[in-house]
Amino acid sequence: EKNWKGKICCIGAGYVGGPTCSVIAIKCPDYKVSIVDVNPHRIAAWNSDDLPIYEPGLDDVVKACRNRNLFFTTDVDGAIVESDIIFVSVNTPTKKHGLGSGMAADLTYIESACRRIAQVATSSKIVVEKSTVPCRTAESMRAILEANSRNGIRFDILSNPEFLAEGTAITDLFGPDRVLIGSLQTPEGLAAQKALADVYAHWVPRDRIITMNLWSSELSKLAANALLAQRISSINSLSALCEATGADVDEVAFAVGKDSRIGPKFLKASVAFGGSCFQKDILNLVYLCESLHLKEVAEYWRQVVVINEYQKQRFVRRIVHALFDTVTSKKICLLGFAFKKNTGDTRESAAIGLAKYFMDEDANVHIYDPKVTDEQILMDLSEPGISSGIEEVKKKITIFKDAYSAAEDADALVICTEWDEFKALDYQTIYQAMKKPAFIFDGRLLLDASELRKIGFKVETIGKPSPATRGY
Ligand code: UDX
Ligand code: UDX
Ligand code: ADP
């Protein structure tokens, strides 16, 4: 076998582990990188031409190094044994029952990965916490690993939170704003920190590799996501005010963002933020604050999630009102189902919430998304709390392969995801095929409303006033 400078294992071949460690592999040809998962279908997909996640640029990265220094395998134990550095990037869903239900992170998968590492390791390891996890998880990982280690094997725990955003994962990983590595401030902890920094230094400038203590590093990840989400809830709360008063939220965001202390990013009003991280991380933060009896702090952050839900309900109320206060048996066409463009991921997508409200109103919901699979849509909408199950979903939901057929005969189009292709549609053709009056509800401030009005559409845009629905 080749004389590798080091061997890296990544436990969990998901949205975080897969792209992150593929980029490490392409940037560090002197390291052997094994990405392992307990799910054989996922691993098979990573080894095929049809990767399990859609992410622009990912295919090229994987193709360039797969089976050279990048390996996808279900042999979790084998990869643990041979590696010096082990990334743990398993899923950390929100708990569905028991203490902290609906808020706290479920650390079952982290714990079982750690127990596995302790059980099979035959030499010392650097174990890197890569999943987003609430503050002080590294401490639990350390306790499990130390209590189960044998024959003087050392485990040094590092926190190395991931800041990539889906849809831009590869560019984010190639040129990160910063890489954050937290460790215990002991000689061993600092040595482990340096070993991981040396990996990133293959392509990240040293001054962007930031080191700090474990708890600061873990909390920084929660804080970053909470502050980003807070900006969206702030602009979304203002979008309600804009609709009620006659201001235009895009203009307000533009003006505000010019202040260099505020900056222009993450001020785009929308139907709501989604994704696997924002809501989960804020709820983790709220739970953490509550556990520490910081009631006011918990309430402050909880409000970010409250506004996000409010925004979805508000949009639906506005749609129903515009459609003459009833959508029963009407065809409502949702364009986009992913939580943002350039991903097939639907976790916490606003479209799920909208579809739920329309199903509750007995509408016929047409759905088209360029990247989300039919199975995923049906599964998301069959969840408890969304519908009564697959029977109801199959009755009320129809999934289409293109926007034009989804829009045929529809009373309204609802833009849920800001896919570029929705900007380029031939709206003249769509208009002709729709029921009249034909409505477009733009939940992403994506389309040119004045052009659409020239065609004949009635257009309602988040954060933009409309006489018909003022105050809704
Ligand atoms: C503010 C706005 O900055 C300015 O654009 C507007 O025109 C008027 O209101 P001002 O109140 O004069 O200006 O000062 P500013 O620098 O914004 O500070 C306001 C308060 O926030 C001060 O008490 C300051 O100490 C505090 N502050 C500011 C912090 O506690 N932390 C910070 O990071 C920044
Ligand atoms: C986020 C963080 O950006 C990333 O750093 C972290 O590692 C994981 O969580 P992600 O959820 O993948 O990434 O995507 P992001 O671009 O942050 O978008 C999250 C949601 O906010 C999407 O639904 C997006 O549409 C929405 N959004 C984003 C807005 O509504 N307005 C904005 O201005 C920005
Ligand atoms: P994320 O968005 O955090 O990457 P994903 O759900 O996409 O989350 O990926 C997490 C992956 O971790 C899943 O593919 C899951 O099968 C895998 N996984 C969970 N627990 C273990 C474990 N103990 N060993 C190996 N893989 C695991």
TrEMBL record:
The keyword Oxidoreductase applies. It is an enzyme of class 1 (oxidoreductase). It catalyses: UDP-alpha-D-glucose + 2 NAD(+) + H2O = UDP-alpha-D-glucuronate + 2 NADH + 3 H(+). Keywords: NAD, Oxidoreductase. Transmembrane segments: none annotated. Its EC number is 1.1.1.22. GO terms for biological process: glycosaminoglycan biosynthetic process; UDP-glucuronate biosynthetic process. One of its GO terms (cellular component) is nucleus. Substrate binds at residues 162-166, 221-225, 261, 268-274, 339-340, 444. SUPFAM superfamilies: 6-phosphogluconate dehydrogenase C-terminal domain-like, NAD(P)-binding Rossmann-fold domains, UDP-glucose/GDP-mannose dehydrogenase C-terminal domain. NAD(+) binds at residues 12-17, 37, 42, 90-94, 131-132, 166, 277-280, 347. Pathway: Nucleotide-sugar biosynthesis; UDP-alpha-D-glucuronate biosynthesis; UDP-alpha-D-glucuronate from UDP-alpha-D-glucose: step 1/1. Residues 333-449 form the UDP-glucose/GDP-mannose dehydrogenase C-terminal domain. The active site is at residue 277. The keyword Cell inner membrane does not apply. One of its GO terms (molecular function) is UDP-glucose 6-dehydrogenase activity. Belongs to the UDP-glucose/GDP-mannose dehydrogenase family. NCBIfam families: NDP-sugDHase. PANTHER family: UDP-GLUCOSE 6-DEHYDROGENASE, UDP-GLUCOSE DEHYDROGENASE/UDP-MANNAC DEHYDROGENASE. This is UDP-glucose 6-dehydrogenase. The lineage of its organism: Eukaryota, Fungi, Fungi incertae sedis, Chytridiomycota, Chytridiomycota incertae sedis.
